[in-house]
């Protein structure tokens, strides 16, 4: 069994409460190895944060530099999310009638867009690592499920999901371009 079979069974009304998945739970037929890479976005020295960027010959591997905050954008007065927006941590995004943003997809042809009439709510919250009290797993799970429920259902399909737009602020995009240009000059 895998996620596709389980989804199909549940959509067909199968009276199943639990599933035994076995090795399909921990391995993927299409990508049996979990690939993860740590990419440095900033360094801190004497309380000063310095943004960093990873440059690659592959444009889609270009990192987004600096300390960031992610905002979920909603239609006004609703819980319907229509996009996420990555901003520098020093930027404050408030509810807006109009904002120019840049798509975070580095391969996009038309990168700049104008968003109108939205409410912005931050997704990231600081965590005090010196506090030894841990957050219960059930709280983390409930928060994650609530945030996923805000996304359009069509983006949550396992087969052919709609793309969920992720933008970045023009300030963050300009920082990325500036650091990229500095790296290109150094390489010449």
UniProtKB/TrEMBL annotation:
Please state every residue range assigned to the domain named Nicotinate phosphoribosyltransferase C-terminal. 68-176
Task: Name it.
Answer: nicotinate phosphoribosyltransferase
Keywords recorded for this protein, A-Z: Glycosyltransferase, Ligase, Phosphoprotein, Pyridine nucleotide biosynthesis, Transferase
* Main enzyme class: ligase
Q: What is its EC number?
A: 6.3.4.21
Keyword match Transferase: yes
* Species of provenance: Companilactobacillus futsaii JCM 17355
The record's section on InterPro entries has: NAPRTase_C, Nic_PRibTrfase-Fam, Nicotinate_pribotase-like_C
Q: Quick one: which pathway?
A: Cofactor biosynthesis; NAD(+) biosynthesis; nicotinate D-ribonucleotide from nicotinate: step 1/1
Q: Which Pfam families match?
A: NAPRTase_C (PF17956)
* GO MF term list: glycosyltransferase activity
Q: Which Gene3D superfamilies match?
A: nicotinate phosphoribosyltransferase (3.20.140.10)
